[in-house]
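Sample entry (226 residues):
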Amino acid sequence: MEEGEMEDFLSPKWVFRTDLEKLSKLGHRARGLHTWQVVLGCKISQDGSKEGFLHYGYDGMDFISFDKETLRWVAAQPQAQKLKQKWEDDSGWSEGNKDFLEEPCIEWLQRYLSYRKEALQRIEPPVGKVTHKEVDDHLEVLICQAFGFYPKEIQATWTRDGEICEYETLPRNVAPNSDGTYYVWLSIEIDPKERDRFRCRLEHQGLQEPLILAWKEETGERLMGL
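Predicted structure, serialized as tokens:
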């Protein structure tokens, strides 16, 4: 969407053809702050049927909506009656809305669905590393980090002698990267003398088998796969 569609996606200015200034000319209060909102869209059901909808709101309340089958406008507020009459007198405006909901909107939806399918099929395995932070002679913190994975779901745990350290592991945070991938980190407080007994275990759709990571003093802080 960002690479090729954003300009087209934001282009249908016809949606706001009747703006607040025109509403004020139809007898609505013009002073103060007012909002003019639109909800429009279309959907394709599993049976192949297609639907479209177009609703306007004024000052946070339903105001007027379009029935594309009858080309009529339905006023949700008494104040919308003048606008209803004006729009129904303009057959080209109603026909244009009907055409958009039945053709371009459906075409856009089908194109966006193809983007979603492509995105959902994307798989990026995590790249991991383990670092540590010394607190004192009897306490240190091991930190496991996994970068650049997609989709978001990942199983990241600390183990001690192969057993999951469920309660000792501090809460982990999964967050998005700017490129659409994710990263996660999790830490655990340990006795430095027992460091070799701890491993970080990463399980992800992009990995054929779990990635087991450890930090070893002689190699410095670098990726270790065991």
